[in-house]
Amino acid sequence: MRVAAPLLAALVALALPFQAGAVNGRAAQCEITVRGERIDGPCRFTPRQRGSFDVAMMDGRAMGGAISLALDITGSGVGEVRSFSTAGVRAQWGSVRRLDEDGACWRGADFTICVRAVGEPPAAGTPPSPAATAPEPSAADRARSFGARCHMGGCDWYIQAPARETGQGSDAVPGRRIEVDERTARSEHAGDYPDHAPPGLSWSPERLELFCSTVRPAFREANGRWTTLPLPEIFGASEGISLRYLKACHAAVGDDPYEAVAGLGYRASPQAGRDFPDFDALVAP
Q1: How far is CA 225 from each of CA 34, 220, 233, rounded to the nearest angstrom?
Q2: Would you list the DSSP string of the chain?
Q3: How do residues 222-269 score in pLDDT, each as one tens digit?
Q4: Nearest residue to 277 via CA among 193, 209, 234, 220
Q5: Who wins on pLDDT, 283 or 101?
Q6: How many CA atoms lie within 13 A of 53 on its CB side?
Q7: Distance of alpha carbon 104 from alpha carbon 88, whole angstroms
Q8: Which of 63, 71, 204, 215 could form a disulfide with 32 if both were Cys (CB 3.0 to 4.6 A apart)?
Q9: What confidence score (pLDDT) does residue 125 get?
Q10: What distance lies between CA 259 and its chain's CA centroid?
């Protein structure tokens, strides 16, 4: 029986030891604070069963002397963290608890681990400053809102304005460069997730820059670099930014990113998950 390439890669990753899994994981954004030292930036995120995961910084920076971390879920909102050094030495960092005010973060006795989907705003769910608030949307606008990622009791909501084209790709990498003004908010839910954002949330403005391309779909990071998406493949850590991309780049797609991407002509690419220093590099052959 022939195994499809994405499935084969997943099976191989599961068979590898932790360090290899972290290196071959998916792109994410990490903020690691260890005894007052903060390490943040692009990282590799490898999800495991029951919400456990592994992380390693893409640029190889150490996190409190560790090149990779493993967070093992042991109960509802709690877990244990292990570290791995460059010499392959394992160490137990201790227990962590998921923060109620920011579900992307886990706090231990003297360290904090935050892992966010690429493109996800930091500290989702914390009250925005008065200078970064957006007006309460109308009922009609809320009916257009979509949950870019609903998991672990919370939803990140987005309302997009019509996209503006700001550039074109190249002959080698065709596509449209666009920017989209968004409003975003977060809600917490003890039961089922609603279809659209409930009233009474605190909304913040954002601007999203995208390259709409079936050859090399990508979004622009806050630091100006461009990161490619793995479309048509979608996984947990890229679910939110993938749906935001699909909504902005393709008219009338639904709210389920796994269904929305079907039939749009995307092909798996070895460039998936790669970042580029600027737009010219992104569209170069």
Answers
A1: 26, 6, 22
A2: -PPPHHHHHHHHHHHS-HHHHHHTSEEEEEEEEETTEEEEEEEEEEE-GGG-EEEEETT---BTTBSEEEEEEEETTEEEEEEE-TT--EEEEEEEEE-SS-TTEEE-SSEEEEEE-TTPPTTTTSPPPGGG-BPPPPHHHHHH-EEEEEETTEEEEEEEPPPEEEEE--SSS--EEEEEEEEEEEEE-SSSPPSSPPSS--BEEEEEEEEE-SSS-EEE-TTS-EEE--TT---GGGHHHHHHHHHHHSTT--S-HHHHTTTS-----TTTT-EESSHHHHT--
A3: 777 898 998 998 876 678 889 999 999 998 888 888 888 988 999 888
A4: 220
A5: 283
A6: 24
A7: 27
A8: 63
A9: 38
A10: 19
pLDDT given at position 122: 56
C-alpha separations of 96 from 35, 73, 111, 226 in Å: 14, 9, 9, 33
pTM of the model: 0.56
Structure-token pair, residue 208:
């999203």
User: Alpha-carbon distance 62 to 103, whole Å?
Assistant: 24
CA–CA gap between residue 54 and residue 76 (Å, rounded):
18
Q: Alpha carbon of 112 to those of 45, 69, 153, 202, 205: distances in Å?
A: 16, 12, 20, 25, 27
| C-alpha 45, offset from chain centre | 10
Cα–Cα dist 112/95, whole Å: 11
Other CB atoms within 10 A of residue 149 CB = 24
Report the alpha-carbon distance of residue 225 to residue 275 in Å, rounded: 7
- The mean per-residue pLDDT over the stretch 119-135 comes to 49
Note the pLDDT of residue 251: 83
Q: With contact defined as beta carbons under 8 Å apart, do 22 and 83 qualify?
A: no
pLDDT tens digits, residue range 82-126? 998 766 678 889 889 888 777 789 998 888 999 988 766 554 333
